[in-house]
Fold M20/M25/M40 family metallo-hydrolase.
Amino acid sequence: MTDNLIEAAADEAVTLTSELIRIDTTNTGDPDTVVGERAAAEYVAEKLTEVGYEVSYVESGGTNRHNVVARLPGADPSRGALLVHGHLDVVPADPAEWSVHPFSGAVQDGYVWGRGAVDMKDMVGMTLALARHYKREGIVPPRDMIFAFLADEEAGGKYGAQWLVSNRPELFEGATEAISEVGGFSITLKDDVRAYLVETAQRGIRWMTLRVRGTAGHGSMIHRDNAVTKLSEAVAKLGNHRFPLVVSDSVREFLDGVTEITGWEFPDDDLEGSVAKLGNISRMIGATLRDTANPTMLTAGYKANVIPSVAEASVDCRILPGRLEAFDRELDDLLGPDVEREWMELPPVETTFDGAIVDAMSAAVTAEDPGSRTLPYMLSAGTDAKAFQRLGIRNFGFAPLQLPADLDFSALFHGVDERVPVDALKFGTRVLDRFFRSA
Ligand SMILES: [Zn+2]
């Protein structure tokens, strides 16, 4: 293959990313308001069938929640398949806050602008460009590849990855490893030396409802069993609680790697202080040193002079791998038996940073950015990897982008003026091409 062809694929990745952003796929979490996922899935399906793919076009348990899955046979069918997945939905954006319209897909000043530019129509664009390139040129990867373009990630994947894994697992048959968001982006550690962070772990998610019952009554009386008072005490306790510092394997490996590159130390007695010196990325890394439990919603009462019998609060809990039982015990002690707890839970994700697939990622990155290195890290949030883990698949966040040193990348996720450098998209397409051909 000539360099010209891969440059053409990289150019196409930019165009596809921009066109995908123009399809408003806002996911508010309310299924009735979802409009664009179907149009985006049709767009992707057409781009794939146009070059000869047979696609599975699957409506996943709700109206207009469409997903597209396609396979590219590899040279060695006895090897496990590589799954490359990306979600087509985005979080809402208010045009009044943006310098360009969030659904313009504008390509200007060296960036592609718009909601989804980094989360994650960039990766979808790069993947789609390479899938088309391989089919057009008859390029056979070493093993089967499965390309999946999914609905509803931003609301937990109930109408996307989770639904497909529960109802259509055969679409992913044979897949042993997967890549997707949020990883593969560079951070500049010194001068011109970059580290590319490959996501190998995610905290678990628990969206918890706290419920306290009391005795209803008149607001003018002496009243000792007030649900609002008891709930408020519980919420304040939990919101102010600090869970213990735990350095997971992936975090330790990340910090050790940074020390090797920069000489910076991360002493146990000042871990959080030293992590804060990492700059923009410290917000993400810092959030993976402890479990967190942030109260987010309160519900109680219906009139100022009526004491309600029930009060409820929502708490967003994020739990480190291996910490679930300890977390529960801590909540037992903190809240006591009178506070009822209910929750929706998605498990943590964790794999090791080793093996042929990691070697292939690292080699692909350093071939395009000599002198750089890859490091594992833990994502403080969650992705569709949580669904694919249920199939026994090893999950990595690897959507490679070489970023300018001064770009606050993590702030772009769900942020105003979300954008991705054109050069980063082209770089990422070249890295993914090397990776897909050697993984
Ligand atoms: Zn995302």
Observations:
- The domain at 2-191+351-438 is CATH 3.40.630.10 (Aminopeptidase).
